[in-house]
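Fig. S4 source data, part A: sequence.
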Amino acid sequence: MIASAWSDGRGYVYGLRILGNGRWLYFRREWGSVFLIFPDHPEPVEVPVTESFWGRCPELRSPKIKQFFLRNGLVPWPKDHPPHFSLEPLGRGRFRLQWLEHVPRQPSLLL
């Protein structure tokens, strides 16, 4: 599934916006949190799934996501052009985040 970087517009809260039908296909309402594996960090990171995720705010929001963006020079991104990622479901509420497109200042990953 595809996810885009998201910000509250003030620079305090950052997250990943799940695009399309991904949240309905790969997430379960009973999950209070999920685990993300970032491309630059091998250990899974727990991220809450809020009730608003199921309404008008399909974002996973966490300081850990903000730290990932900062570590990789993704903040700030050009207006209306947030970075996009692939979010691969691994099962049992675990997801692997991968670069989907190259963004200036985004480091290349070894393949």
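Fig. S4 source data, part B ends here. The chain has a mean pLDDT of 90.
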